Amino acid sequence: MPLSRISLGFLGLFFTAGAILLIFLVILGGARNTIPLNEIYFLEADTSNIPGAPAISRWTFWSLCSVAPDGKSICGTSHPDHPFDPPNPNNFNTTINVPHQFIGTNHYFLTSRFMFPFILIGLFFAVCSLFTGFLAMCTRIGSYVSSLLAWLALTFQTIMTCLMTAVYVQGRNAFSSNGQVSKLGVKAFAFMWTATACLFLSCILYCLGGVVGRKDPGYSGRKQRRRGFFSSARSNSVRSQKKEREAGTQYA
Description:
The protein contains five helices and five strands; from the N terminus they run αββββααβαα. With 252 residues, the chain is an alpha+beta fold. It folds into two domains: 5-215, Butyryl-CoA Dehydrogenase, subunit A, domain 3; 220-252.
């Protein structure tokens, strides 16, 4: 049984809402020391041999966090768009025992800082697509507008996710090559890539909702009925004018 515009629009809304929820969780990860926010981070590394650093460090959007005995993050003062750059004053402010890949380069600093604006822009378009998604269940134009907004959200979300993957995978490899055990944050990466997939599915579903409207038998029937009404009206008008002309000819 083919899907209707209502069901396609609802599925698009479902995947869009799921993507927004996952994006919010990653954005707020490390903002507060409460579950589940203190379980979401991008990278964890053993920094016990770096002066002034925690034994284990975790990087989030908001701060550099230490790790409690129960495995939860303990984050201090929050600052938005916290950079991932160990020698930086916002991180460890030293180069002692810091992997040489981080020294003398702005690559990690700039890449990690650009993640935050891209994820916010993508989130904005995703929220807009969520609101217009209600119209997608009713109108064809609503489906196309929602698809466009979801596509814009997907574009910025994909850029952000690729930046995140590149910079933190490189950071993990740098720590590992220096003999410091490190690992990626499974939740943050799983949430971001899942959100990207959800937005991709939303784009497709909203587009299909617009296309289905054109092939809907009910839509075609209504169009034919409207066409039939106007055709019969024109025919009646032509017949009426013909009779008037015939009547005028007889009287003449």
